[in-house]
Structure formats: C-alpha cells, structure tokens
C-alpha cells in the first residue's frame, strides 16, 4: 500500500498563520523551523534556557527569545525541538503547566510520545512534522524556493483539526513544496531508530573502522585507507541519493559492480540479518528506549567513553590532518558548534 502524499495545495497556510508558535530549541532543526516560519509570516518565539549560547544567534536573526516556560505560556502551538533525552524534563517543567485546552503540541520525532515518556492531556492536539533532512538543508532549501520532504503524523486529535494544522505547519517550513508523507508516531519512531542503528550511523560507522583497521593492519598507509573507506563514501552516497542502488551500480566501474554483487553478501550475512531483526525487536519492545534513558540518568558514561575512543582512533586523527589539507573543504569538528 502506497503512502499518502500531500503538497502545497493540500495545506491551508492560514491555520498556522493564525497561531502563536513557540519553537523550543534552536539547534539544527530549531533554527530552521523558527526562521522558515518567521519568513512565512508566522508569529514565532524561540524558547531557550537562560544563558543559552544560542540566545544571541536567535536574537540577531530577528526572533523573539523567551524562556521555555514563558514561550509555552505565550504560545498555542508548541514545537518541541530539543534532544530526545531532555524532552521529558522540559515537558514536566515548562510545557505541562502551561498547556491550555485546544493547544497543539508538536514534535519532529516520536520517541517520547511513542514510548510514553511524555503523556499530554486529552484536551490538546499532538502531532508530528518531521523533515527528512538536517536543519541546515531545511533552511537552505526554503531560502532557495524549494523544500525538504517531511513526515506528518497525528497522535491525538483533540480539536478535530490536528492533521490540517500539521499540514499547515509543514507548509510554513517549506516541506509541502517537496512533499509530505502521512505516517504514525510508531512507524516514524521505530524506523528512524532502526535506520540510525543498523546503517546510517551504527552500521556505516562500524564498517568504516573495521575496513580501515583491516587495511592498516595489513600494512597499507593510513592515508590510503582513509581515502578508500571513508572519503570516497560520499561519492557513493551521492549516487544513491540521486538514483538509488541501480544508478550507483550503473555509475561505478564494472569491476566495482561485480565486487559489489559477489562480495557484499559475504559482509552482510544471514547472521547480520538476524542481528538486524534482534535490534529491531529491541526498538519495538521499548528495550532500547529504556536503556538509553537509563544511560542518560547515569550521566551517559558509555556514550562519553565511546566518544573518547572514537576521537583517539587513527581513522579520525589521520582524517583530521587530511581534511585540513583539502582547500575545497571546510573541515568541521564538534567544537565548531559550541
């Protein structure tokens, strides 16, 4: 069964334009949502904790900046765009005390609603508008007159107009220019976590390091290994993005394509697929969500240790040196975003 798609003509922009919208958070997604809505003529305020280093950036962009509590009290549509692990506390402290009957509570990821860490009252609409791209792309595409596709879902329709309002919000950030797919909080949350863990982050990350170590352990120069297993990955991803697997295979050499079809199944084996199914089961049961929230409550010791280990890995140290030698590339580090 094909997914239902919505475009510009399916959204009534006047619905979100009649609202006071609080965007809580001003990171990757937050800055894009707030600025796109502002440029679409929507009355927007950004909710940031006092002393946030992003406060001046939001103010300089012409946005009203309030504390999360004040923003939630002022608004009748609240979009929650802080990281998953902070949403439960933010909801209890700043959002729940300020919700009024008929308000709308929006999310860009279903984690906290789907797994029950946030449970809004039955008197408010609860919906999702989730762009399928990073915030800088959402903003850049909007400014160019285009948009990034998004998902839309309704968890709770208290007013009877939650879906129409979600589509209107999607219109305000430019998503209906590209297309909006209707889904559910369950489907978005579980597929998003699975994709992150099995391929987009976890799978690719581990494959890169394993391949790099295989080459360097065999005596090849770290610089050569870096280019072959990490740098050139962008070329393949761009081809996949443009035309899927068939276009990628068509575009690479016949030698590469033959290696793909004959050696790929030796890397991703039936045991790998069984592990994928196990990981999906952990997501569906809520076991991963519970594990992650317990990790957060403990101060994220395992995550911090993994970050330190990755920073010290040769693929990162060699890569940093090589990226600094590339005049066409503006090298990035986590510290650049502080």
Commentary on this structure:
The chain has 17 helices and nine strands. The chain is α/β, with parallel strands linked by helices and 338 residues long. Strands 1-9-8-7-6-5-2-3-4 form a nine-stranded mixed sheet, sandwiched between helices. Helix 8 links the parallel strand 8 and strand 9. Helix 2 packs parallel to helix 7, helix 4 crosses helix 5 and helix 11 crosses helix 17. The protein is globular, with a radius of gyration of 22 Å. 31% of the residues are buried. The model has no long low-confidence stretch (mean pLDDT 96).
Structural class: alpha/beta
State the end-to-end distance: 44 Å
* Strand order, sheet with most strands: 1-9-8-7-6-5-2-3-4
Strand content: 5-15%
Calculate the mean pLDDT score and round it: 96
Helix content: 55-70%
What is the N-to-C succession of helices and strands?
A: EHEHEHEHEHEHEHEHEHHHHHHHHH
Count all strands and give the number.
9
The low-pLDDT segments are none
- Summed up, the helix count is 17
- Assembly type: single chain
State Rg. 22 Å
Major beta sheet, specifics? 9 strands, mixed
- The geometry reads as globular
Topology:
Elements lengths: L4 E2 L6 H5 L2 E5 L3 H12 L3 E5 L7 H6 L3 E3 L1 H7 L2 E4 L3 H12 L8 E4 L3 H4 L10 E7 L3 H9 L6 E7 L5 H11 L7 E3 L2 H16 L1 H16 L4 H10 L1 H19 L2 H14 L2 H16 L1 H11 L3 H12 L1 H11 L14
Parallel strand pairs: 2-3, 2-5, 3-4, 5-6, 6-7, 8-9
Antiparallel strand pairs: 1-9, 7-8
Helix pairs in contact: 2-7, 4-5, 9-10, 9-14, 10-11, 11-17
């Amino acid at each position: 069964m094909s997914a239902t798609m919505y475009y510009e003509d399916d959204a009534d922009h006047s619905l979100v334009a009649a609202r006071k919208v609080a965007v809580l958070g001003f990171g990757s997604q937050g800055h894009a949502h707030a600025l796109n809505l502002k440029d679409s003529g929507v009355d927007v305020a950004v909710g940031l904790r006092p002393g946030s280093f992003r406060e001046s950036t939001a103010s300089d962009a012409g946005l009203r900046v309030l504390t999360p509590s004040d923003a939630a009290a002022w608004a009748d549509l609240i979009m929650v765009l802080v990281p998953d692990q902070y949403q439960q506390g933010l909801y209890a402290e700043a959002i729940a005390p300020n919700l009024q009957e008929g308000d709308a509570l929006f999310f860009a990821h279903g984690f906290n609603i789907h797994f029950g860490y946030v449970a809004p009252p039955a008197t408010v609409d609860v919906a999702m508008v989730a762009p399928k791209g990073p915030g800088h792309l959402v903003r850049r595409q909007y400014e160019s007159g285009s948009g990034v596709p998004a998902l839309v879902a309704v968890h709770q329709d208290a007013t009877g107009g939650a879906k129409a309002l979600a589509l209107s919000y999607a219109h305000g950030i430019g998503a209906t220019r590209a297309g909006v797919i209707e889904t559910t909080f369950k489907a978005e949350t579980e597929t998003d976590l699975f994709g992150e863990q099995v391929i987009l982050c976890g799978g690719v990350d581990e494959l890169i390091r394993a391949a790099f170590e295989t080459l360097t352990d065999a005596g090849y120069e770290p610089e050569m290994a870096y280019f072959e297993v990490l740098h050139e990955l962008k070329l393949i991803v761009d081809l996949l993005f443009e035309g899927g697997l068939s276009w990628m295979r068509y575009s690479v050499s016949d030698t590469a394509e033959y290696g793909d079809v004959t050696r790929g199944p030796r890397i991703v084996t039936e045991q790998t697929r069984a592990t994928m199914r196990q990981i999906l089961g952990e997501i569906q049961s809520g076991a991963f969500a519970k594990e992650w929230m317990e990790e957060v409550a403990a101060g994220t010791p395992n995550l911090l240790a993994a970050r330190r280990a990755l920073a010290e890995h040769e693929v990162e140290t060699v890569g940093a040196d090589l990226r600094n030698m590339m005049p066409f590339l503006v090298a990035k580090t986590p510290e650049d975003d502080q």
